[in-house]
Amino acid sequence: MKQPKEVDGIYQADNPMPTWWQLVWLLTIIFSVGYVVYFHWFSDWPQEVAYAKEVAEHEAKYPNKPKLVETADGSNPFREDAVAIKEGEATYKQICAACHGPNAEGAVGPSLVDAEWIHGNTDKEVFANVMGGIGPERQKLNRGGMPAWNGLGADKVYSIMAWLATKNQTLVKAK
Ligand code: HEC
Questions:
Q1: Name one Pfam family in it (predicted).
Q2: Quick one: residue 142, left, alpha or beta (phi over 0 = left, psi -120 to 50 = alpha)?
Q3: Nearest CA to ligand 1 atom 3
Q4: What single string gives the DSSP state of each residue in 121-156?
Q5: Selected residue with higher pLDDT from 43 and 162
Q6: CATH architecture of 82-167
Q7: Where are the domains of the chain?
Q8: Which of 9, 36, 141, 175 has its CA 20 to 30 A from that of 99?
């Protein structure tokens, strides 16, 4: 250790880091160069690749999942699809039950199993209401409105509706 240098009564010490520490530091820098090259060009770790892999694994595991095909009249392509109905029920219980009640009988949000529909009872209308939500300009109940659920994706929303359709005959395919 060098002696502290004195300037105007203030002591300034210069204690270099130990050699072993500096070597470790240098090694991390050398390692990082190799890591970057490997990560970006040679590994399958980037998130796009990892995501594609997970999706492929999921599809291999659940091959029966219905494929989403848009219909001409806007009716729900997942109607009567047992897999979708089951998934839809699970998604409903997880997300919608808080406001519409565990069995869709209504709470803050209106009942979805009775014959009264405020914003339309066709698949097309209900899909639009769920995906886009019901904002202040359209809301009728004055209970804070209905959030937009397009973040769930069309698959999940149609699945929820397929489940609702099993519980409510008045949710119709089209006019
Ligand atoms: C934060 C509470 C809340 C959540 C969560 C919620 N809703 Fe709603 N929903 C409402 C309210 C409030 C309304 C009534 C809007 C109005 O005042 O017109 C509504 C209305 C609706 C309507 C229109 C009903 C009709 O009679 O026309 C449908 C369909 C609907 N919700 C489905 C869903 C589905 C499906 C989910 C889950 C993905 C969901 N909601 C989640 C609060 C919620």
A1: FixP_N
A2: left
A3: 99
A4: -BHHHHHHHHHH-B-TTT-SS-SS-B---GGG-HHH
A5: 162
A6: Orthogonal Bundle (1.10)
A7: 5-61, 82-167
A8: 175
Q: Cβ(100)–Cβ(106) under 8 Å?
A: yes
Q: Ligand 1, atom 39: nearest CA belongs to which residue?
A: 96
18-74 tens-digit pLDDT: 999 999 999 999 999 999 999 989 988 888 888 999 999 988 887 766 667 778 899
Q: pTM score, two decimals?
A: 0.71
Give the Å distance between the CA of 140 and the centre of ligand 1. 11
* Atom nearest to 149 CA in ligand 1: 38
Cα–ligand 1 centroid distance for 144 (angstroms): 10
- pLDDT in the model for residue 71: 83
Q: Which residue out of 146, 152, 161 has the highest number of ligand 1 atoms within 8 Å of its CB and is therefore the one to mutate?
A: 146
- Give residues (CB < 6 A) around ligand 1: 95-96, 98-100, 108-110, 112, 117-119, 126, 129-130, 134, 139-141, 143-147, 149, 160
For residue 2, give both structure tokens: 């060098």
Average pLDDT estimate for 126-143: 93
Helices (H), the chain: 19-37, 47-61, 82-91, 97-100, 123-132, 154-167
Pairing of strands 5-7, 10-12: antiparallel
Q: What 3-state DSSP class applies to 7?
A: strand
